[in-house]
Amino acid sequence: MTGEHYTDEQLLTYMDIVDGGEEDAGRVDVEAVRTHVELQACSDCLSRLQDLRGFANLLRDPAVHRSMPPAISRPYAVARSEGPLVDLVQRSSRRADEDALAKVTFQSLQSLPVEHWSLNIPPEAGSGGLVRELIRAARAEYDQAPRRALRLLDVAEDIARGLLYGDDQAEQRGLIAKTRAEALRMLGKHGAALESLELAEGLLSKLPASTYDLAFVDWVRAVVLFYLSRYNEALPVVRKAIATFREHGDLDNAERVRMIEATILCEQGDVETAHRMFSRLAIFFGRRDDREMVARLNANLAECEVRLDRRDVAYEYAEDAMRMYEELGYATEKVRVRWILGHALMRAGNPEEAVEELRSAATAFAGLGMSGEEASVGLDLAELYLSIGEWNEAATLARDLADRFTVARAPVHRARAFAYLYEAVNSRPETGELVALLNYLRSYLGLADADDEPVPFHPPGE
Amino acid sequence: MTRRFRRTSAAAGSSIYFRRLRGVAPARMSDHLVQPDLGEAVATAYHQHYNVLEYIAVRRFHVPDDDVQGIIHDVFVAFIRNRPRIRDERAWLVGATFTQCRIYWRARGGEPPLSDLEDDIDDPGARASKVEAQAEVSNVLGQLSTRCRELLHLRFIEQYSSQEIARQFATTVDYARKLVHRCVLNARALVSAARRERP
User: Fold this and answer.
1) Is the pTM higher than 0.90?
2) What is the pLDDT confidence band of residue A41, given thresholds at 50, 70 and 90?
3) Is the Cβ of B51 closer than 8 Å to some Cβ of chain A?
4) Which residues does chain A have within 8 Å of residue B80's beta carbon, measured at their own beta carbons?
């Protein structure tokens, strides 16, 4: 012992005896070391002992000894040429230059209609960087203006087809195809979206080390399959993407995709498992202080609780979600939680509570000027009234909404759709027919609201 | 949110179904795409992590020397492509190298060697730290004397006792133990020095 502490050699001898079962040759007083380090917790000796134990563990790994025995030893440091690094730096610099120029070009294009962009891009500006810029612009818009996003992607495709450098064309065209699939999904064109994802996968597979890139394609594919209710196909795709993200240390994206997995399980009826997954995800994103995700997960948990017939807990989760959205300043998301809750209550057979939540959500959406959401909640309410035999309530609601959308000069399609519903309810058809009509209207309104161009309303069968 | 994931395909048309998708759609990479210092950042990452990636390819996956640099180059090409969305650079590079080594062997009709590190995927950051520490130790073992390397191999891999080592080296138990300890401490000092020098 030197002064107050044991030397590293003494600690190693202690380890030989205590950890390695070696005979105590009296070189070190084992009990004295144990008392000093482990009972009196001398922080200096304890820290060195832990460090030495960790180091000894590393030495127990055969892979670190591959150079043994000496006769067959070879250093693992393979002769390294500088050529690849030079190539990587050149690629990076070229990419950075392209991206910087693309920003300027993209800015200058903004004053023109998209249709004229292809003709107004100077040849020297038609780079991978500009394609990336266009893809980014399309991604920023695809959920609000999917057709415009598709037009941006057409411009990007024109440029990408002319790219000659290395893997540029495959990379950019692959990303375009993936983004195109996202826009097509918004327009309800799921078949075309899946085809576009096939193309994206084929192109991106040509790139060196493309596994990570392909996980993003799988992510979109899982979402499309989900929308098609092809849950059994979506699950393995989701799980593959999660495994790839985890393998690459990308836990954030892995857990975001896991939310889809949990949602699929919920839809398949495994609500308990989904609940556990949502709870774990809420903890994960809570630790990252991602309050938006936590709020969303609380809303999901509220729905799970309704399905598990634990309404009191459901309200608590919903309240938590709404409070968090309020704190974040997301007024519409807050109303959406009420809608989710109302819808879940309706599905779970609690009409009175469901009416209360849905009415409240519809009023709030109307107050926020969100007529698309108001219309969709209106359909849920109409379905609810019809399910409990309140024909007059359903008819009045449909008429009121048709009037409101007409007066408010909302897109004509909504007023026409509700006027059609009003007529249908008044003619008192069979319940099955009405349910089919409500689903048709839901589908129509969903697509029409997602589209950035007018979609005329046609009654079913026309 | 599960509300938008209703079972009926007709429900797929409702607006909540579409609009609430944001949280589950792939994140956008809008923030860091313009990277004027990308070349420098890539060069730094290359110098910083090359040894670890090389260790994975050579030691863990037994990739022939001639192919190692190619694999690592491919990993870095993918790194440049995906850099805007990579949060943990080291864990990403380690994971991508594992993946590429597996693909390398499968493309040649073989199965990649099983790696005890695969179990650690639950914590990719910890796996990257572990593999980095192993690479460091492996690297410094090459700098030790032949006798030291042999001693450490006998003690930690062959699990020789101090008595057995003493017999092998025709010396006393005490001295054998002392020799092993010196080699351990020497190796550890070299690792510490290498860490201090790392970019």
Assistant:
1) no
2) confident
3) yes
4) 88, 91-92, 95
Q: For residues A441 and A436, what is the distance between their CA atoms, to the nearest angstrom?
A: 9
Report the distance separating Cα A189 and Cα A175, nearest Å. Answer: 18
Question: Could you give the CA distance from residue A377 to residue A362 in angstroms, rounded to a whole number?
Answer: 6
Exposure on the CB side of residue B104, measured as CA atoms within 13 A:
25
- Secondary structure class of A350 (helix, strand, coil): coil
CB count within 10 Å of CB A399 equals: 17
Q: Give strand pairing partners of A5.
A: A2
Chain A within 8 Å of B117 (Cβ-Cβ)?
no
Determine contact: B160 vs chain A, CB below 8 A. no
Q: Do B5 and B43 lie in a common domain? A: no
Q: Provide the token pair at A54.
A: 């960790």
For residue range A86-124, list pLDDT tens digits in order. 899 999 989 998 999 999 999 999 999 998 998 888 888
Contact A283, A320 (CB under 8 A): no
Q: At what angle do helices A251-267 and A271-287 cross, to 10 degrees?
A: 160
pLDDT digits (tens, 9 = 90+) for A161-209: 988 877 889 999 999 999 999 999 988 889 999 999 999 999 999 999 9
**pLDDT per residue over B69-81, tens digit each?**
999 999 999 999 9
Domain membership flag for residue B57: yes
Domain range spanning residue B175? 141-199
Distance from CA of B94 to the nearest CA of A (A): 7
DSSP state string for A371-418: HHHHHHHHHHHHHHHHHTT-HHHHHHHHHHHHHHHHHTT--HHHHHHH
DSSP A5: B
Q: Please name the residues between 11 and 50 in chain B that touch chain A, using a CB distance below 8 Å.
A: 11-30, 33-43, 46, 50
Q: Which of B7, B20, B26 is nearest to A446 (CA)?
A: B20
**How far apart are alpha carbons A127 and A133 in whole angstroms?**
10
User: Residue A223 in contact with residue B25, Cβ under 8 Å?
Assistant: yes
- From the list B173, B144, B168, the residue with the least C-alpha distance to B158 is B168
Which residues, in sequence order, are CB contacts of B105 under 8 Å at separation 6+?
Answer: B61, B111, B112, B113
In order of A267, A279, A301, A347, B30, the CA distances from A305 in angstroms are 14, 12, 6, 12, 36
When the candidates are 1.25.40.10, 1.10.600.10, 1.20.1260.10, 1.10.3730.10, the CATH number that belongs to A269-367 is 1.25.40.10
CB B27 to CB A52 under 8 A?
no
Distance set, CA A256 to CA A112, A290, A462, B27, B47 (Å): 37, 12, 41, 9, 32
First-to-final CA distance of chain A: 94
Q: What is the CATH number of domain A94-208?
A: 1.25.40
Of A249, A267, A300, nearest to B92 by CB-CB distance is A249
Which pLDDT does position A66 carry in this prediction? 65
**Domain count of chain B?**
3
Integer Cα distance of A69 and A71 in angstroms: 5
Contact predicate A110/B97, CB 8 Å: no
The predicted-structure confidence for A276-290, as pLDDT tens digits, reads as follows 999 999 999 999 999
A134 Cβ neighbours under 8 A, 6+ residues apart: A106, A152, A153, A155, A156, A159
